[in-house]
User: Fold this.
Amino acid sequence: METFTTPADLHAWCAAQKRLGRAIGLVPTMGSLHEGHLSLIRLAKERCDTVVVSVFVNPTQFAPDEDYAAYPRHEARDLDLCAQTGADAVYLPPPEAMYAEDASTWITETLVSRTLEGAQRPTHFRGVCTVVAKLFNTVQPDLAVFGQKDYQQVAVIRRMVRDLDIPVEILRAPIVRDPDGLAKSSRNAYLTPEDRATALSLSQALRAARQAVAAGERSAATLQTAAQNTLRAAGWEPDYVAIVDAETLTPIPTVLPGATAMLLACRKGRLRLIDNTLL
Ligand code: PAF
Assistant:
């Protein structure tokens, strides 16, 4: 497995792979890899000849009061996991290789990124779009794989790719959960055993909503109230419980099965968790 730390070196290697006729899959990550990330690497491997994993805690997607400094970093372990899972190259740029000190160009998606996470974290998706576009320019992948855990992120990136004619297929991979239902996340490392137990209320709220829809419930308001009650009863204060069009993320009053997503975010003290499901 190759490792790279500069865009120029990675770009040259990827160009050589392309000249050999190899299709490239990219899995962008912020490291601290868990089974969810490994599932993305496996999916990329199934579809592509060469798989590049980027491991970069992207400073521009964190607000000043967020956890950039504290974000878990496990580089040596990440490299082992990438090698074991069949990655062909890992890109670990230091921040100064990614951003010039006076960098002044941003990519801003202005519709899908404005609500939900974007409303809580106004500069987050600008940072995500900019870094992902930079990775696409460097690697020029045929396929890029992102996890459904960050549902809005995938929707925003799909828009960016469409609107800017970036020639890459975006694959949204299913959420990987612990056996008890908690969605895998690098930030689960912040949970005490007690927080972790109450955090199961997120997946429980989503499961209850899926069951209610399967039983015929269509009212978004009814589903939202039930989910809010479940979260609050477990000590988690909802930031939002949204029932939206699965593509545009526009709120909808009535569930259209197969074309609707339910997204939730909630807080407990300094902890914040998100989860989602298609309905
Ligand atoms: O989902 C993430 O880990 C990050 O937002 C991403 C896509 C790697 C961009 O920094």
Summary: Strands lie at 2-4, 24-29, 50-55, 89-91, 143-147, 169-173, 237-245, 260-268, 271-278. The longest strand covers residues 237-245.
